[in-house]
Design a protein that fits this description.
Blueprint: E1 2-10, E2 13-14, E3 25-26, H1 34-45, H2 61-66, E4 70-75, E5 85-94, E6 97-107, E7 110-118, H3 122-132, E8 150-156, E9 160-162, E10 167-169, E11 175-177, E12 187-188, E13 197-206, E14 213-221, E15 224-227, E16 239-243, E17 246-250
Parallel strand pairs: 3-6
Antiparallel strand pairs: 1-7, 1-8, 2-6, 4-7, 5-6, 9-16, 10-15, 11-14, 12-15, 13-14, 16-17
Length: 251
């Protein structure tokens, strides 16, 4: 039986490194990617990660056990989901060579995380228990192991239903989008509301050969959508779900 749970993760600092940068400037994603969430859950369960993976022809244990889990992600809606960032300068020594590195860092990142788990799976049941009781095998972190995170607001949802047809609604979490997703004229405008639209391209998975990120475009907004027709093109990417807290998008 499928179950929806949610919790809030937070840290003083965070850094989700983008791979498409040069060797002296590191840039972070603003929204935590799904790939990092799977790694975080693996850390809580004590699964092996990249460093412990001896067979480099295979993906690490955490990925093999958690890759089919669907998630939904909501950054803090303060400032439209955009976190303050600072650049930190430090020296990095490798093979006897010292380089000056500039690293972009998130300040006080906070995210509401929703995950769909299977109660008939013993390991999923253990994960639910660990999240409920704030127990972790290893210390989870916000992108870098020196940025330890903690979580609270654990919630088991009693409402967990697919949204078939609905009018005038908001989506609490980020929304995967493709070239067929039409945003223009899809929102219901109210003069008293300030709407924000945040777009970001995030890694969601890995390809097998060569082992590289698979990317997806996302939208985070507080706009009110006129109907579910706007989401017809996304049915193979994500799914609108009614939860205790409102409508989310699992992917």
């Amino acid at each position: 039986m499928k179950k929806l749970i949610s919790f809030t993760i937070k840290a003083d600092f965070g850094m989700f490194k983008k791979p498409d940068i040069n060797d002296k400037i590191f840039i972070t994603y603003n929204i935590i990617p799904k790939t990092y969430i799977l790694g975080m859950l693996g850390t809580i369960m004590g699964y092996e990660g990249y460093a412990q993976n001896k067979d480099k022809t295979k993906m690490p244990e955490f990925y093999e056990k958690l890759k089919d889990i669907r998630v939904a992600i909501a950054p803090s809606d303060k400032n439209g989901g955009i976190f303050k960032k600072e650049f930190i300068l430090f020296n990095n020594t490798c093979n006897g060579e010292t380089k000056n590195i500039t690293e972009q860092t998130l300040l006080n990142p906070t995210y509401d995380i929703y995950i769909e788990l299977d109660e008939t799976n013993a390991e999923h049941t253990e994960l639910i228990d660990r999240l409920r009781n704030q127990k972790a095998e290893f210390l989870p972190y916000m992108g870098k192991n020196e940025f330890s995170l903690w979580w609270d607001n654990f919630h088991e949802h009693t409402i967990f239903e697919k949204v078939e047809q609905k009018e005038q609604f908001q989506v609490l979490t980020i929304i995967p989008k493709d070239e067929n997703f039409v945003l223009k004229n899809s929102g219901h405008k109210e003069r008293t509301t300030n709407y924000f639209y945040l777009f970001e391209r995030l890694p969601i998975n890995w390809s097998d050969n060569p082992r590289q990120y698979k990317y997806q475009d996302f939208l985070y907004t507080n706009a009110v959508f006129k109907s579910t027709e706007s989401f017809e093109s996304l049915k193979d990417i994500g799914e609108l779900i009614e939860s205790d807290q409102g409508i989310i998008c699992l992917f």
